[in-house]
Each structure stands twice: as structure tokens, then as C-alpha cells.
From TrEMBL:
One cellular component (GO) term of this entry: plasma membrane
Matching Pfam families: ABC_tran, BCA_ABC_TP_C
Domain ABC transporter: 15-255
Protein name from the UniProt record: Branched-chain amino acid transport ATP-binding protein LivG
PROSITE patterns found in the cross-reference section: ABC_TRANSPORTER_1, ABC_TRANSPORTER_2
Keyword entries, A-Z: ATP-binding, Cell membrane, Membrane, Nucleotide-binding, Transport
Keyword Transcription regulation: no
SUPFAM superfamilies found in the cross-reference section: P-loop containing nucleoside triphosphate hydrolases (SSF52540)
């Protein structure tokens, strides 16, 4: 069992995971994990295969509830809330490009995502909101570096661009907290560099938590890292602290 980290500066965490356990049948994928995330920080959850990273991502993004324990967002207990409830509170997840409508242009994809956040009343009069929605879509595409390809069908975009498009869609509701699952998976080194630059910029304006298998990748990017191993909390710290952590080196790098 680990206890949530102390808060010497009194900065209330935006997200708290308290003693969370997640079972699949008799298998324990997450075991009594407690961590707290501070605002406007970029934190990575890392760990070797089967560490429980995806399970953690799913639990904190509301895809499924923990078997035990609690999730608190801005001090409010949101354990067991439906996924759309998480979204309404300002928690967005970016996890796959299957959300992208391949036949629509990049711009239309983001416009639809921006429109989805509106109330049902506003959805009934899309025409009136259309120019404003397109303006928002253009600003988001600019933000993720896709302004030049905004009129191309999503199917014509490179893998890295499709992933960036999916992030623009996740950003449409202007979330407070952005959760990303392996944002550079399947990318070329060049695409990875572009994506890392984008993540760094996004983290300047909101809280970003990313789940990542490749430890080296996040070392130069994140201020804090949380290490899971066999579904348990193993360590938390700055990149330097994690690099020097004997147990992490042993289980993760195999070099201690
Ligand atoms: N729906 C499920 N049913 C049964 N077991 C599951 C389920 N989801 C995950 N697991 C098991 O839980 C453990 C943790 O899986 P998880 O996908 O969370 O790890 P991970 O750290 O994301 O791994 P990887 O880096 O390989 O994706 C694994 O042993 C996995 O087989």
C-alpha cells in the first residue's frame, strides 16, 4: 500500500486516485494504488508490459470504475460516474484514432467534435452556430499543427497527423485535464518529435497525464513520473529521481 504524496506547498491536486484496486475476475490488474496529480503539470505513468498502465488510464478516464477505492476530481468524488459525466466535468481522453471519421476533412472532424459539446438545444440549430464552430475548429487545428491540411480527408493524413487530429477533437470541449494513452504509438521518429513538442505546449495551459511504455521518451518531457509494476505503485519522482531509483532500474530497466 502506498499513501498519497504530501503537499508541502498546499497546492490542491486536480486529480486524486485513492487506494484504487481493479480486478478482472480474480486477476488484480491494479492493487491499492494512490497518487495525486497537481494542476498544469505534465505527468507520465510508466511501467513495463502488464504494469497496469492501460487499466489505470481506463479507471481515471471513467471507461470503467475501480473495484475498490476512489477517484476525486477537483476534490469531488467521481467514482462510478458514467464516461460522459467525466467528459462533462472537463476530463478528456485521447487514446486512439478510431474516433476520427476517415471520410470527413480534418476541419469537419473537429467541427463535429466541437458541436458535440453543445447542449441538445444548440445541436438543433447547427446552421446558426456553424461559422463559430468552424472558427473554433480552425483554431484547434492551428494549435496541433494541422492548419495546412485542414481540408484534406482524414484518411489522407499520415498516422502522426491523424493522432494530432484526434487530440484536436479531444481539446474541442476545452478540457481541464487531458489524459493521453501512448500518444506516440506507431509513429516515426520524426512524427514522435512533433507530437512531443505538441504535448509540451498543451501542458503549458492544462493538466496532462500520459500513459507511456517508452520510459526514455518521457524522461525529457515530463516533470513527474509515476512508475507502476505488476499493478502496484512502485515509485514517483522527477526524471532524475526515477533514473536513480534502484527498484525502478531493477524492474524496468533491468540494469541495477
Ligand atoms: N479486460 C481485462 N480482462 C482481464 N485481464 C485484463 C484486462 N485488462 C487488462 N488485463 C490484465 O491486466 C494486466 C495489466 O494490463 P494493462 O493493459 O493495464 O497493462 P499495461 O501496463 O498497459 O501493459 P502494456 O504496456 O503491455 O499495454 C495484464 O496482465 C492484463 O492481461
Amino acid at each position: 500500500m502506498n499513501t498519497p504524496p504530501a503537499r508541502p506547498d498546499g497546492d490542491a491536486p486536480i486529480l486524486e486516485v485513492r487506494h484504487v484496486t481493479r480486478r478482472f475476475g480474480r486477476f488484480v490488474a491494479l492493487n491499492d494504488v494512490s497518487v495525486a496529480f497537481r494542476r498544469r503539470r505534465l505527468t507520465a505513468i510508466i511501467g513495463p508490459n502488464g504494469a497496469g498502465k492501460s487499466t489505470f488510464f481506463n479507471v481515471v478516464s471513467g471507461a470503467f470504475p475501480p473495484s475498490e477505492g476512489a477517484i476525486l476530481f477537483e476534490g469531488r468524488d467521481i467514482t462510478g460516474l458514467a464516461p460522459h459525466g467525466f467528459a462533462r466535468l472537463g476530463i478528456a481522453k485521447s487514446f486512439q484514432i478510431t474516433n476520427v471519421f476517415k471520410q470527413l476533412s480534418a476541419r469537419e472532424n473537429v467541427r463535429v467534435a466541437a458541436q458535440m459539446r453543445r447542449t441538445r438545444f444548440q445541436l438543433w440549430r447547427p446552421r446558426a452556430a456553424y461559422p463559430e464552430l468552424l472558427e473554433q475548429a480552425d483554431a484547434l487545428l492551428e494549435r496541433v499543427g494541422l492548419a495546412d491540411v485542414r481540408d484534406k480527408p482524414a484518411s489522407d493524413l499520415a498516422h502522426g497527423q491523424q493522432r494530432a487530429l484526434e487530440i484536436a477533437m479531444a481539446l474541442a470541449p476545452d478540457p481541464t485535464l487531458l489524459l493521453m494513452d501512448e500518444p506516440t504509438a506507431g509513429m516515426s521518429p520524426q512524427e514522435t518529435g512533433v507530437m512531443m513538442g505538441l504535448i509540451e505546449r498543451l501542458a503549458e495551459e492544462r493538466t496532462v497525464i500520459l500513459v507511456e511504455h517508452k520510459m526514455k521518451l518521457v524522461m525529457g518531457l515530463c516533470e513527474r513520473l509515476i512508475v507502476l509494476h505488476h499493478g502496484e505503485f512502485l515509485a514517483e519522482g522527477t526524471p532524475d529521481e526515477i533514473r536513480a531509483h534502484d527498484e525502478v532500474r531493477r524492474v524496468y530497466l533491468g540494469t541495477a
